[in-house]
Structures are given as C-alpha cells and as structure tokens.
Amino acid sequence: MTDPISQLGRASVQMNPNADQVKNKKADAADANKVAPKPQQDEVVLSEAAEIALAEADFDSEKVARIKQAIEEGNYPLDAKRIAESFVSLEKMIGGK
C-alpha cells in the first residue's frame, strides 16, 4: 500500500529510533527557557486603631504569671461542666445547632 502524501510504500519508510530523544531534548530546552513565576507575597495592613490597641495592650501581667504558675504546678482549678457549657454557647454563636 502506498502513502498518498509521501508516495512511499510502507516497506520503504524507515523509523528513526532517535526521534523521541530529539523531541525530548527540544521540550527540555523549551522548559529551561521558561521562568517560573514568583509567588505573590501576602501583606497585612493594620488600621491605626488596631496598631494603638496592640501597642497599649492592657492586662494584669501579675495575674497572668500566677495563673501560668498554677497551671504548671497542676493547681489551677478546672470546672469541666463550665468548660462544656462554654463550648455549647460558642457552637450556638458560630451557627451550630
């Protein structure tokens, strides 16, 4: 059977065993020329009110230190029922049933 485009028969067409290697080299060269896009950086801009609130954070550092020490010593009282109730009210607030 003769190929209508090349006018060659199947027996006269020879396969190029290096064709895939040449094709892969061209693809690799094209990939090497591409520059990877730089990932965009996220930026957070705080309002003036937020910056002031952070700068003037008002809390009792002595009380925080006492609570921290009590937790480390295992002497901080925990009320499981009260904690559970807080979670239930929090769930209701955020849309739970």
What does this structure look like?
The structure is a single chain. The chain has 97 residues and is mainly α. It has a domain at 60-97. It has helices at 19-33, 48-55, 61-73, 80-93. It starts with 18 loop residues before the first helix and ends with a helix.
What structural category characterises the helix and strand content? Answer: mainly alpha
- Runs in which pLDDT lies below 50 for 5 or more consecutive residues are none
How much of the residues is beta strand, in percent? under 5%
Biggest sheet layout: none
In total, the number of strands is 0
Query: How many distinct helices?
Result: 4
Order of helices and strands: HHHH
From the alpha-carbon coordinates, what is the Rg to the nearest angstrom?
Answer: 36 Å
The shape, in one word, is elongated
- Described by its quaternary structure, the protein is single chain
- The chain-level mean pLDDT equals 78
Query: What's the N-to-C terminus distance?
Result: 75 Å
User: Residue share in helices?
Assistant: 40-55%
Give me a quick take on this structure.
The chain is 52% helix and 0% strand.
